Amino acid sequence: MTTTTPVLAGEATAEPTPRTAAGRVRKRLNSRTATIVSIIIALIWTVPTFGLLLSSFRPEDDIKQTGWWTFFSNPQLTFQNYNDVLFGRSSSSGQLANYFVNSLVITIPSVLFPIAFAALAAYALSWINFRGRDWLYIAVFALQIVPLQMALVPLLSFFSRGVSLGGITLLPPWDLDNEGKFIQVWFAHTCFALPFAVFLLHNFISQLPGELMEAARVDGAGHSKIFRSVVLPLITPALASLAIFQFLWVWNDLLVALIFAGGGRETAPLTVRLAELAGTRGGEWQRLTAGAFVSIVIPLIVFLSLQRYFVRGLLTGSVKG
Amino acid sequence: MAVSSRPRQALVLATTLALALSAAACSSDDGGDSGSASSPECAAYDAYTGNDGTTVSIYASIRDAEADLLEESWKQFEECSGITIKYEGSGEFEAQLPVRVDGGNAPDIAFIPQPGLLKRFADAGKLKEASAETKTMAEANYAKEWLDYATVGGKFYGAPMGSNVKSFVWYSPKLFAEKGWKVPQTWDEMMQLSDTIAGAGIKPWCAGIESGDATGWPATDWIEDVMLRDQGAEVYDQWVDHSIPFNDPKVVSAVDRVGKILKDSKYVNGGFGDVKSITTTSFQEAGTPILENKCAMYRMASFYANQWPEGTKVAEDGDTFAFYLPPVDPAKGKPVLGGGEFTVAFADRPEVQKVQTYLASGEAANNRAKLGNWVSANKKLEVSNVENPIDKLAVEILQDQSAVFRFDGSDLMPAAVGAGTFWKGMVEWINGKSTSEVLDQIEGSWPK
């Protein structure tokens, strides 16, 4: 009985005869062998990361002379690398604790600003009727094509020289210094993220049923009320997936930070610091293993805690978009 | 209803992040400034006073431990002059500097290690001409051939600072003493020694030219060093400024002379394998077989002293040391290949010029040298202030009257060649392409 029932039940709950090719593929992917294969792939994929983790606890000489697998025959662990990298006093050893804070200060506003602006813009572009709306949307959409590398020098010049046309100063230079440079980085990241963010959120918001908006309007709600009480709760998965995207992008960004934040102690994020950790001639890479793990921690927390939204947001997008 | 609990969760998350942000914003550091002191130690810095409370930013490729020492070396200058120096070192210096300059965000002073890049900025009108004081100071302390590299169109832009000597061959004094080998004084002696060593069952040479994006540069140094010896300084200059083509028979002769060592499996690659292993061995690791007596000689610049594993004694009677790469014809003087960085300014505020002048001075060189691991061509640099033996040897070579100094050629050539096809060509050359084929290819890539 116990051997037959589950089989029957399984067949009953699963689609009995998958009609489409996709259905058949799906059924095959749910089989036990597929699960085992995917577990094996996952394990193989994790091995390098695991090796990195192990290396970060091994003494400098060991790292430089042998591979991480020798740990199993000669187990020697140390916290020295992490100590150096996080709390070292000289500029040659990490001081990552300091740069870690810089990274947070850069990343959080750079995630919140574009999402806030993009949500408002996407709502306006989908539910407020005004002349030229579609052209505006196409223009925003098209901006995604422009590579951000092209904007680096003009934007930097915009900050340091201001804008002037024919000798008339339209905007004065910003003249930001030290901690003020954070503003440049936020500004830059927000600019670069907006086209994609608007595009993504527009896809979600424009697919919301029009009856909802009408019902709210009948009840006397204005645009701001509709946006806050109807739209925002419904697009949370999209906001979360966008937030993850943007968070990972900003956290791992080196180029924008290098140019707009500079390499100084006050503003440089972790990525900039990590790039320098290997030493002038690139020989000090025992610090890199520990440094890499310090920089992974936050994205890992963010990803794991928002992961549900991420998958859902992607799926919703694929079905609706 | 399942939906409504999630925004709340997201809200909690957002609040936590916001809290973390505000906590971070509170922890800004305090900037302490000190006034100038007129104590006796400051007597040497009298010329630099008068700009109390100003800040000068310096941007360079020197970072890590060496940057620590550099900052320490000008501490007293800062205290006495009241000028604060804000130093920033970056591994992306060469790529970042043009972006910053074009974006109007140039540093006050940059240490540029490539005269080619310096010339580019000077031609574009971005650099400020050095002040009369800086020029006088530089002329008093550095040889003319050094200053020429920082002079573009008759204008002098900045003095050199640190330098390194590349014409060195690392070896193991212990092994040499044990086997009764002598440090060669001429090229022929060196080749005979190579045969002797090969006869003793040890690979005489090791080499490695892997260096990430810059793979190939150690081989270009080899070629340049031998070019100076095989053809002399004048032909070298013509080759570098392209008045003779890159595939000239004279260049072919020099490259083939290197090939007799690097492309002969009888001589290379001690501790790593055959000739092809040269391209996959990193230059940092390439010398280490010397300590295990698996290889006898490794041609690499003086800064390689920092690459030996901790506890290695770098001295004439130690585990490892270097000898001067011998000339082909000693009668023609001692050719020296080297490099160094130039302190150029993008601003002409008085405090910037004062820092620039200070960096050209003997005090700056001696202050930095006392802290160790540093070499400069500054004539005021006292050899007694240089601590480790290899740096001493380098300073002696730089100050030697019979030395014919030439700057690393690949830093003088246009970047498309000096930091591009020349590097790549060398990799292909080691991997088996013929000398003429590789040189033709590099010649074809020279910007018209």
Tell me what you see in this structure.
The complex is a heterodimer of chains A (321) and B (448). Chain A is mainly α and 321 residues long. Chain A has 2 domains: 5-78, no CATH class; 96-320, MetI-like (MetI-like fold, Orthogonal Bundle), CATH 1.10.3720. Chain A has 15 helices and 2 strands. Chain A has helices spanning 5-13, 21-29, 32-56, 60-65, 80-87, 96-127, 133-143, 152-161, 181-206, 210-218, 223-234, 236-251, 255-260, 270-277, 286-320, and strands at 163-165, 168-171. Chain A has a two-stranded antiparallel ribbon with strand order 1-2. In chain A, a hairpin with a 2-residue loop joins β1 and β2. In chain A, α7 (133-143) crosses α9 and α9 (181-206) runs antiparallel to α12 (236-251). The two termini of chain A are 47 Å apart. Mean pLDDT of chain A is 82; it is low at 1-15 and 317-321. Chain B has 448 residues and is of the alpha/beta class. Chain B has 2 domains: 50-165 and 339-406, D-Maltodextrin-Binding Protein, domain 2 (3-Layer(aba) Sandwich); 168-337 and 412-445, Periplasmic binding protein-like II (D-Maltodextrin-Binding Protein, domain 2, 3-Layer(aba) Sandwich). In chain B, 44% of the residues lie in helices and 13% in strands. Chain B has 19 helices and 12 strands. In chain B, the strands form 3 sheets. In chain B, strands 1, 2, 3, 6, 11 and 12 form a 6-stranded mixed β-sheet that branches. Chain B has a 4-stranded mixed β-sheet with strand order 8-9-7-10. A two-stranded antiparallel ribbon of chain B has the order 4-5. In chain B, a hairpin with a 2-residue loop joins β4 and β5 (155-156). In chain B, α10 (217-231) crosses α11 (233-240) and α18 runs antiparallel to α19. Chain B is globular and about 65 Å long. The relative contact order of chain B is 0.16. The interface between A and B is large, with 48 and 46 residues.
Key terms for this structure?
heterodimer, A: 321 residues, mainly alpha, MetI-like fold, 2 domains, two-stranded antiparallel ribbon, 2% strand, flat, disordered C terminus, B: 448 residues, alpha/beta, D-Maltodextrin-Binding Protein, domain 2, six-stranded mixed β-sheet, four-stranded mixed β-sheet, 19 helices, 12 strands, globular, disordered N terminus, transport (chain A), MetI-like (chain A), Sugar ABC transporter permease (chain A), MetI-like_sf (chain A)
